[in-house]
Write a structure and sequence with these properties.
Elements: E1 2-16, E2 20-26, E3 40-47, E4 62-65, E5 69-70, E6 76-82, E7 90-100, E8 103-114, H1 129-136, H2 143-160, H3 177-197, E9 207-211, E10 216-219, H4 233-242
Parallel strand pairs: 1-8
Antiparallel strand pairs: 2-6, 3-4, 3-7, 5-6, 7-8, 9-10
Helix pairs in contact: 1-3, 2-3, 3-4
């Protein structure tokens, strides 16, 4: 025996590409009673294939699962969902299923995935300022500073991926979603590193000590070997796992 409460058309919440949303559902003692009841075997699934919306066709972002489902009070169930960066925007169907007593209850909601960033990266850039903020959580650095750092980080990535083979468009930017995602994340990591390093001209790293007032400088002995900007460990890790850097698990694309 089952009871179905359909809330289709009532949006649970909105989430931007790459963002998180907490989906929530209260199970009832019986259909439309609005009285909470403990449920067993609670699962949640997110599917766009049955929705006639711009998001339809993405398939099943989250197959029905109990993993990650929590309950703060025994009657309301929560699930934290992170929408992929490359998620197609539009409405997605959220289906909750659980057993109350001997009755299987099913509830349906919609969650809307909205664009996170305005426009695609400009030619020569692998990420946007918005992507950097979403990846790093940095909301305080001024936009112009971030944009400049993203440009320099993209140039650092260009140097790191020399000899990598992947499909590109007329602007030389990758077209494969997997490659786009890897380059964007690596660029965000390198941007974060450059902002933290706070040495846009690359001068400070040439010295082991610096005394501006007394005009006393000591050049680092090993700086003569650093012909190119350093790639930060996390950016290198992302590119390595993606198969870009030497000795990676995957070779090119």
């Amino acid at each position: 025996m089952s009871s179905v409460s359909v809330l289709l058309g009532a949006r649970q919440s909105d989430v931007v590409q790459g963002g998180q949303v907490v989906l929530s559902q209260m199970f009832e003692t019986f259909r439309a009673s609005y009285a909470g009841a403990p449920a067993a075997n609670v699962t949640v699934g997110i599917d766009a294939s049955t929705l006639n919306t711009p998001g339809a066709g993405f398939g099943t972002p989250v197959p029905a699962t109990s993993a990650g489902v929590t309950t703060p009070d025994g009657v309301t169930y929560n699930y934290t969902w992170t929408a992929p960066w490359l998620m197609i925007t539009g409405d997605y169907l959220v289906t909750w299923t659980g057993t109350v007593g001997a009755v299987t209850e099913t509830y349906q909601q919609t969650v809307t995935v909205s664009p996170n960033f305005t426009g695609a990266p400009a030619p020569g850039l692998y990420a946007t300022a918005g992507q950097y903020r979403a990846w790093s959580g940095d909301q305080s650095t001024p936009d112009q500073v971030v944009v400049t750092a993203v440009q320099r980080a993209s140039e650092d990535i260009d140097n790191a991926i020399i000899a990598a083979v992947y499909p590109v468009n007329q602007n030389g930017l990758p077209t494969d979603p997997y490659v786009i995602n890897a380059f964007a994340r690596a660029t965000c990591a390198q941007t974060q590193y450059l902002l933290a390093d706070n040495d846009p001209a690359g001068m400070k790293r040439q010295y082991v000590s610096l005394n501006v007032g007394g005009i006393s400088y000591t050049r680092a002995r090993n700086m003569t070997t650093n012909a190119f900007p350093l790639l930060c460990p996390r950016a290198a890790e992302i590119l390595h796992v993606a198969g870009v850097l030497g000795s990676a698990a995957l070779i090119n694309w």
